[in-house]
Amino acid sequence: VTGAPTSRSQALGERLARVECPAFAHRRRLRAGDDAAPIVLASGHGSILLDVDGRRYLDLAAGFGAVLLGHGHPAVRRALEEQGSRLVQGLGDVHATDAKVELLETLAALHPDPRAKVLLAQSGADAVTAAIKTASLATGRDGLLAFEGAYHGLGYAPLAACGFRASFRAPFAAQLSAHVRFAPFPGLGGAGLDEALAAVERHLASGAIAAVLVEPVLGRGGCVVPPDSFLRDLCALAHREGALVVADEIWTGLGRTGSMARSLAVEAPVDLVCLGKGLGGGLPISACIGSDEAMQGWTRAGEVIHTSTHAGAPLACAAARAVIETVRAEGLAARAVELGARLCRRLEDALDGSAKLRAVRGAGLLVGIELDAPATAARALARLATRGYLAVSGGVLGDVVTLSPALTIEEAPLLAFADALRAVLDAVIDEG
Ligand SMILES: Cc1ncc(COP(=O)(O)O)c(C=O)c1O
After folding, report:
1. Looking at ligand 1, which atom is closest to the CA of residue 126?
2. From ligand 1's centre to the CA of 353, what distance in Å?
3. How far apart are CA 123 and CA 118, in angstroms?
4. How many CB atoms within 10 Å of residue 302?
5. Strand 117-121 and strand 286-290: pairing?
6. How far does the centroid of ligand 1 lie from the alpha carbon of residue 407, in Å?
7. Which residues of the chain have pLDDT under 70?
8. Which atom of ligand 1 approaches the CA of 158 most closely?
9. Mean pLDDT in the chain?
10. How does pLDDT run across 322-360, given as a tens digit for each residue?
11. Which of 40, 76, 311, 345 is buried most deeply by CB count within 10 Å?
12. CA 4–ligand 1 middle distance (angstroms)
């Protein structure tokens, strides 16, 4: 469960450093210093991961939320075996496969518009790009309104709307869309609901905004949960000015925060919904689901499509259907809400009085523990790993320990994490 790095991880870490783009080693050094122990993962079962040295970890990150049902869930394995034995690749958007048709129907049915349409993509960034293009075609406008602290992926279209970290945009600033505007996100950096909505209203008044792009809960930005009315108000303001609303549910959707799409659950009439991460249960697939009216924009231009070789690949489609069916059949959305609430209470109790704690917050099984400084979060995460807990950092400053475990994670080990975190934070204080 615990221990100093042993030779296989160390050796693979050194081989990695010789061949991987240096951005990642550079980032690891910035966050954790030179002596962060490399962890090289080898296998997983449920919410348990094993590294190449046989050390066990409780997986509290689940591949940034991608492994929605846990590693090796039988429903996903069955779907992959069945589809894999028949057809692994079709012919994209030229000749569909039965797996793709069935997934499109399942996804379209998530949207309240009975004639909703779906664009499949491969990553979250790809789905957001599809949504931005859709909004632009539907409205004939170039502008995009995004939020401070928001993260939508790092392809060029979503990067322009990345309010999460200015340093991600800065080197490419001249190549990014000049038509993106930012508004404060309620609850982030002291911004209130009224202030955020007033900024949204001001930007929309220009008449140039095609879409407001919003995360129903700011994920990487630190698990910031706005009031439910925020999304409804946003839709009212946007629709009044002829703009669409794109809900980026890539982290919040598919049960993680309590419903298939949080925006729709709070009855916000969003036009486009992006899903990704957990959709493929670990396989890369994402989707942009839109009202028929918004999607008809694609027919108004000359020949124009958004596609790629692997979009709608049958293996990923089969996995995605299995994921959605399992979330429903096992009642995982409701479980996420209940278990997430118990986890937050447990964390609040265990961390009560710690000088390092700023806040515990989240929705369902997307939980953030804000600490006093980015360095505390980095040290806590490194120490947690040596105690057998894997989580990731978040927050605009990097001061939030972020938990997005599989929705199937067992309760007892999850709740035990709270005591481990307390012990780790106490140790950080003792070390000075
Ligand atoms: C809300 C949200 N949107 C989009 C993305 C980008 O997804 P991907 O990394 O698959 O491109 C992420 C990734 O963290 C995300 O959290």
Report:
1. 11
2. 34
3. 15
4. 4
5. antiparallel
6. 18
7. 1-6, 32-36
8. 4
9. 95
10. 999 999 999 999 999 999 999 999 999 999 999 999 999
11. 76
12. 32
